[in-house]
Each structure stands twice: as C-alpha cells, then as structure tokens.
Design a protein that fits this description.
alpha+beta
C-alpha cells in the first residue's frame, strides 16, 4: 500500500528541518519562552519552557516550509 502524500510531505519536511535550524530562544518575563527561526522570517513559537518552545517551533517551521514549498510549486 502506498504512503499518503501528506505523510510523505511531513517526513520530507522533518528531514530538511534537521539540515538547517538557526534559532533563538528568549524569555519575556521568566514565565514564557519565545523561539524564533532565524532562517524562516516571521516563524516563531512560544512555550512555558525552553524545550516546549523549541518543540512548538519545530512544528511551526514544518508548516511554514510546507506552505512555502506549495506556494513556489515544489512537487510533493
């Protein structure tokens, strides 16, 4: 049975995310952490801990890159 397209695209995005991942994580007031992806302008995520903010950023980057690739016509 073939793997659905949406699952293949997630796998491809994860592989590409592991290649380039420039990020910055900072705290706003000690209770909230914000992670920024420096190589994907405007892509950021927040969490109660640094680890949570980075996990959420990884998900946000995957969505960001998938949408961008679709916009420029990269075939999945």
């Amino acid at each position: 049975m073939n793997t659905p397209d949406y699952k293949r695209s997630s796998e491809r995005a994860r592989r590409r995310l592991s290649v380039i991942f420039n990020r910055l994580t900072r705290t706003t007031d000690g209770n909230l952490y914000i992670s920024y992806a420096l190589d994907t302008p405007g892509c950021m995520a927040q969490g109660a801990t640094i680890a949570e903010a980075e996990r959420e950023l990884e998900k946000a980057r995957e969505d960001y890159l998938r949408d961008w690739w679709k916009e420029i016509g990269v075939a999945w």
